[in-house]
Structure formats: structure tokens, C-alpha cells
Amino acid sequence: MLNTYQYPEFDYVQSEEQKSGTVKRHKAVIIGAGPIGLTTALDFAKQGIPVVILDDNNTVSIGSRAVCYAKRPLEIWDRLGVGERMIDKSVVWKVGKVFRDEELVYQFDLLPEDDHKIPAFINLQQYYLEEYMIDEAKKQYGDLIDFRWKSKTISLKNQGDHVALQIETPDGVYKMEADYVVACDGANSDTRKMLGLDFEGQFFQDRFLIADVVMKADFPAERWFWFNPPFHRNQSVLLHMQSDDVWRIDFQLGWDCDPEEEKKPENVIPRLKAMLGDDVEFELEWVSVYQFACRQLQDFKCGRVFIAGDAAHQVSPFGARGANTGVQDIDNLIWKLKLVMDGKAPEKLLESYSEERVFAAADNLLNSTRSTDFITPKSAVSKAFRDAVLDLASDYEFARPLVNSGRLSMPTPYIHSSLNTPDEDTFDGKMVPGTNCADAPVNVEGTEGWFLNHIADSRFKVLTFNTDPGFKKLDINGIPCDVIVVGKDMLDIKNRLKERYDAKDGTTYLLRPDQHVAARWRTFDQHKIETALKRATAQL
Amino acid sequence: MSLKTQANIERPDDFYQELIDLHRDLSEEQSRELNAKLILLLANHIGDMTVLSEAMNAAKKDIEAK
Ligand SMILES: Cc1cc2nc3c(=O)[nH]c(=O)nc-3n(C[C@H](O)[C@H](O)[C@H](O)COP(=O)(O)OP(=O)(O)OC[C@H]3O[C@@H](n4cnc5c(N)ncnc54)[C@H](O)[C@@H]3O)c2cc1C
């Protein structure tokens, strides 16, 4: 179907339990092997937890979907061992241009700060992303991750101390049980319906045509966005470069079009020619028309079922938010589940998954709704303001930050989380409790590397600057916590840790397994660390 | 309240005339465009979000009361 990509097909194998007709209890079951389900499988396996992953299909994402991935999800994938391969294959970009008619009105540079391992943004086709995660799962965790393709969940019920599921395969229907289920079955989630959860929000009266074309063109690797271009009047258009000389073009269509008509090559090709010029040779790889919604669940936990990714929240694609935010759901959830499964933290800790990620989803939704209102104004007045901003932006600097062609996805700090210990000392900078940790170049045992790679083993860490408490580990009610002394165990080779963490001698941070700040102080105080760790694991 | 609501324009009649003259011969649509630009320019000049919110609320209050 595609010229540049061959879809892998994964074999359906009948499971032992279906063959023998026994009902087996699994520790963890994932529904859906999209980007979020696959991330879940890797994170479980990395923690040593065996997991079954079910998918009703047997290949990766069909056609063209997500393109842009942001720094934080890439850091998570890097923790899981797949980030580097994704970055190597991708197109890294940082400049975005906004045009109106034929004129450049605004240009932004993501201006990534120096001295971070992971770039601000990359572009990569979703099928590569999924393929790489499946490869990694098979290579590293063949014994822990049990892939079950062509296995559709057709019923699911919370039963007190477990979840009961029914799975349909080419060999019929079988039953299984799970201690915990993570539902990553996408925007049309069957799980959500089986649990009877309300999925509320807004559907937008607009449609977009996405076309992937293969061409050798000398457009730079930048994000180009047009309002009202001469080749597509009264609508917007977005151009993005992907790997393998594939380019993504998004045409806003409006509400009155006929999606089936628009999708026909004889209608798409002239549109592309008008845009690219007659002399550019291209081949059409993929076309589809989509409509989007902005909606989310109010609770991402229902008994022993956790809902994550598009199943829990759906946003407009402006600003590349869908997969980016879903990956962060998993980063938040799995370490908590591990502690609860091991009996080291109370069940209550699991509620903080919903608390923190519902908050993040709401923030994400707000950003995506704001972009949508700018790109597709809903009323004459809204359009007048939008056009006024664009007019003013060419002449006046002040109007440029108001231009919203999609704000790019940034992680939402859990500033109000019940797991945080509020600051009692004074700090500057961004690393307030609830924030994901900033990266920095470091040297450990004579080897240069990256800070985040040294706090990537899903254990709590105490980071303390130039004060040696004299021990390397704490054990707090059975929860291990490693002590890293900056200046001794770890050298801050460019002083970026000091700068980014506003550190002075004695400054001490408690970091969560998902690389978020739980607490910080100006001095090392073991008692305070213990209390903060108990708070961060819902033991207080 | 940070929004100034006491008279602050030195020659009120001059200002008012200039504002009305600005819209002369414009279509409704052009007037809407002009107003939008004017609001954006002034809002940026003020900058203070508290003042802006108070002004927006004050402007709407009358309309909802009617
Ligand atoms: C045009 C477009 C552009 C986008 N661009 C971006 C972008 O640039 N950046 C970004 O971050 N996001 C983007 N997104 C969003 C991104 O594609 C989604 O957020 C992402 O795919 C969600 O992943 P998921 O794993 O939650 O769900 P999905 O990818 O939908 O995966 C769900 C999986 O569950 C399986 N499944 C469904 N029901 C069952 C069942 N009953 N039993 C078993 N399995 C089941 C499905 O077969 C599927 O494999 C874009 C989306 C679109 C449409």
C-alpha cells in the first residue's frame, strides 16, 4: 500500500490457556498495542512484571497518523531503551514558520536549551515508532511480554479483587482474569464503553484532509503553517517533513465538504500541485480525512482498570498532543502499580494516577482548544480578532505571540499533586515539586553521559549537592532509595545541574521513579526525606 | 479595582470625535476589523492582565444586565 514502508505482520498464535480451556489469572493485562499500549508493555517489563498485551489487529498503525514527538515522551522512550533509535530515524526540527496569503508573518525557533540529550521535537511516522517498540519488546523481554495479536477484548468486568475479561480470537472466545488492566484501546475504546464511562467534550465542525507524499523537495526541515494561502483559499494548511522523503500535508476542509469525494486522488492531486508547483514530482502515499474532538474522562481509574492514551483523552492534533501526552500517562502509572503490587505502597497511591493525569489532560485539552479556536474561528467576531492578530503580526512584534498555529506539547507539572512535599526553603528556577527533571551532562565513574540516564531505573533517588551523608542507600518501609552525591558520585561537568536545580552546597532533592521532583530542601535531612518519600507513595 | 474608572482623557470631545470619524464610511465588517485591531493594540499597551480582565468584565456587565 505504501511505497516507503512495508507493514510487518505479526503471527497470531493461539494461547495455551485458550487451547487448554483454563482460566488464568495474570498480573497485568494491556488492551491495545498502539503507541501507548506498547509503552506500557515496555515499562512493565522493565520493572520485571510479566504482562499480556492484547490487540484486535496484527500490525502497526495503518496509514499516516502521528508525526511529531516532543522532548518529554522521547525521554521516557529513552528510559525504556527505544528513544535513540527513534531519534536516529527521525527528522529533527526546531523552526516553525507561519504564513498568511503569500507572506511570512511570524517565525519561531523552539530554541532548545543546550546540554540536553533529547531534542525539542522530532518527526517520525507512527508506524516506525510502534515497530521499534515491538522490536525492543521481543529482543529484550521475550519472556515477560506476551503479545496476543488478533485478540479482541469483548467484555470486561471489575470483580472486587480482579478483573474478568473475555477475548475473541480466530479460534473463538476465551476467558481470562487480571489483577490489573491498563486500557489503551484508543479513541473509540471498547473498554470505556464496557465500563459505562462518560466521555464528554466538544466535537469540532471541521474536517481535515491529510496527505502523505513522497518527494525529493528542497523545503527545509521546518514546520510551515499557512492561513488562507493562495493554493487553498479561506482555509489553513500545514506542511511537515518526515523520514524517507515523506512529507505530511494537512488541508483544512471546512464542514460542508464530502469526505469521500475529497479523498479521491483526482481531487487531492490538483490541490497538491497547486501547493507544490507544477515542476515538483511527488507520489501520493496516503490520504485520509478526519474530524476531531476535544474530550476526556473525569477519572482515569475505574476499579482495577486504568484508562490511558486516546481512550482517556482525545485532543485536536494542533500542537502534536495525542501520543505525546499518552506516553506520560504510562510514565506516571507503572511505578505506582509496581509498588502496590509488591505490597510496598497502599492502593491509595493508584488514585494519584488519575489525580495527576486528569489534571495534565485538562491542561493539554485547554491548549489544544485554544489553538483550535484560533485556527478555525467559530464566529464572525472570533474570526475578526484572529484576522486582526494576523494583520498586526506582520508590522508589530507584540501581535506575534498571539498567533496560535498550535502550541507545541509541553509536559504539565503536577504542581497541586497530593504526592508533593511543598517547599519550606526558597528556590529559584523551574524544578518545583511535581515537575519533570531537567537533563544535564554529567560524568559518572569517568564516563560522560546524561543525568536522566542515571535516574532511569524506576527507583527513588536522593540527589544531594556536595554533601556526603555517608551512605549510598536508604530503605524506607521496604522502598529502596539511592543517594547520588553531586561532586562525588556524579560530576556536574558543565554546571548545568547546579544551574537548573538552583543548587547550593547541601541542596537535596527527592526524585520519583518517573523522574519528577517530589521534594527539595537546602540541607540533607534524613527524617525529612523519609517523610517526603512516604508522602510521595501515599503512605501519609 | 486597578482599572481606572474616573475620567482620564484630557479632551473627551476630541477623543470621541476621532473615534467616530475613524469608522466613517466603513462597512460593518470593516468596522469590526478596525475595532478588533484597536482593542488588541490598546490591550497590549495596558499589558496588565488584572486591568484587562476588569475592563472585559466591566464591558460585559452592562450587556448582560440589559
Ligand atoms: C492525523 C493525525 C495526526 C496526529 N499527529 C500526532 C502527532 O503529531 N503527535 C502526537 O503525539 N499524536 C498525534 N496524533 C494522535 C496519535 O495518533 C494518537 O494519540 C495515538 O495513536 C494514541 O495512541 P493509543 O495507543 O492511545 O491508541 P491507538 O493508537 O488508537 O491504539 C489503540 C490500539 O488498540 C487496539 N484495540 C482497539 N479496540 C480493541 C479491543 N477491543 N481489543 C483489543 N485491541 C483493541 C487497536 O487495534 C489499536 O492497535 C495524531 C492523530 C491523527 C489522526
UniProtKB/TrEMBL annotation, chain A:
* Family matches, as Pfam families: FAD_binding_3
The answer to whether the entry has keyword Transport is no
Question: Which positions fall inside the FAD-binding domain?
Answer: 27-363
Key words, A-Z: FAD, Flavoprotein
Give the matching InterPro entries. Answer: FAD-bd, FAD/NAD-bd_sf, RIFMO-like
Keyword Flavoprotein among record annotations: yes
Name one molecular function that GO assigns to this entry: FAD binding
Q: Which Gene3D superfamilies match?
A: 3.30.70.2450, 3.40.30.120, FAD/NAD(P)-binding domain
Q: Which cofactor does it need?
A: FAD
Organism superkingdom: Bacteria
What is the name attached to this protein's record?
FAD-dependent oxidoreductase
From TrEMBL, chain B:
Q: Please report the name of this protein according to its UniProt entry.
A: DUF2783 domain-containing protein
Taxonomic lineage of the native organism? Bacteria, Pseudomonadati, Pseudomonadota, Alphaproteobacteria, Rhodospirillales
Q: Which Pfam families match?
A: DUF2783
Q: Which domain of life is it from?
A: Bacteria
Known InterPro entries for this protein? Answer: DUF2783
